[in-house]
Specification:
Blueprint lengths: L11 E6 L4 H5 L1 H9 L3 E8 L12 H19 L3 E7 L8 H14 L3 E5 L5 E2 L3 E2 L2 H18 L16 E5 L6 E4 L4 H9 L2 H4 L5 H13 L4 E3 L2 E5 L4 E8 L10
Bound molecules: zinc ion.
The site of zinc ion has 5 residues, from loops.
């Protein structure tokens, strides 16, 4: 398999997102698939989603506690190895140098081959959803932390040894170029979303997730495994724009 094609499994991956449930809505099928194949997966949540409710029974503190517990359960379902919470204020994220440094610290510590994050260029989805400003900040700052932050040896040596991320898988993008077949893990994606009870209550999320995953697949070009067999279009996919930061070397394709 070629590096970073739709069947590629990295040795390690770090998903950097703003809120508990962002990973589950966007990239859960992919990370579960990778974790099943032996990839070491780290989740980094910049906030703990501490204002994400209209229910008066919560305070910011009690909601953060509940949502961190829900996120840990979702991570367990998906097979992630660890969850890191940075505990910034929900709905208050700003793309600061301080936040960039915190993300560099996480990247240098866990040294992921691949980083997953949202597309900071996505502002409108259709005509009913304005992207959450925290999502835009999280995506933008994650990219800044990957390049040039984490890889420059002379920059912030106290944050750990420099590390070059090989590729960034950018989700929630209006310009996808790679579609990952999540047919075998879409059930766990739904189960991981059900772990976010404070957000979804008893609402049945499954029809929406199946419909999204089919919609993404509809724009995918047909794929064939290693050039064998009839090309087919996967039924359920998650789509990405991939930035390949490490150049392929000759002989890497096997
Ligand atoms: Zn969110």
């Amino acid at each position: 398999m070629a590096r970073f094609d739709s069947d590629y499994v990295p040795a390690s991956a770090m998903a950097i997102y703003a809120h508990p449930d962002d990973i589950e809505f966007t990239v859960a099928g992919t990370v579960a698939k990778w974790a099943d194949a032996g990839c070491e997966v780290t989740f980094v949540l910049i906030t703990s989603g501490d204002v994400g409710t209209h229910d008066a029974k919560y305070t910011r503190k009690s909601l953060a506690r509940v949502r961190e517990r829900e996120e840990r359960e979702a991570a367990r379902i998906l097979g992630a190895k660890r969850v890191v919470f940075l505990r910034k204020g929900d709905c208050e994220l700003e793309s600061t140098m301080a936040l960039r440094k915190e993300l560099v610290r996480q990247i240098r510590k866990y040294r992921p081959e691949v980083v997953l994050c949202g597309d900071p260029q996505s502002l409108f989805f259709g005509n009913q959803y304005i992207n959450h400003p925290d999502h835009i900040v999280a995506g933008k700052t994650a990219l800044e932390a990957v390049f040039p932050g984490a890889e420059m040896e002379l920059l912030w040596p106290r944050l750990g040894k420099a590390h070059k991320v090989h590729a960034v898988y950018i989700s929630s993008t209006l310009r996808p170029d790679t579609w990952i077949d999540i047919g075998k893990t879409i059930g766990r994606k739904i189960a991981s979303l059900r772990a976010h009870e404070s957000q979804l209550g008893s609402r049945d999320i499954a029809p929406m997730i199946y419909s999204w995953a089919m919609g993404e697949g509809r724009t995918a070009p047909p794929q064939s495994k290693a050039g064998k067999g009839r090309a087919r279009r996967p039924k359920y996919t998650e789509s990405f724009r991939i930035m390949r930061l490490l150049k392929d070397e000759p002989g890497d394709d096997e």
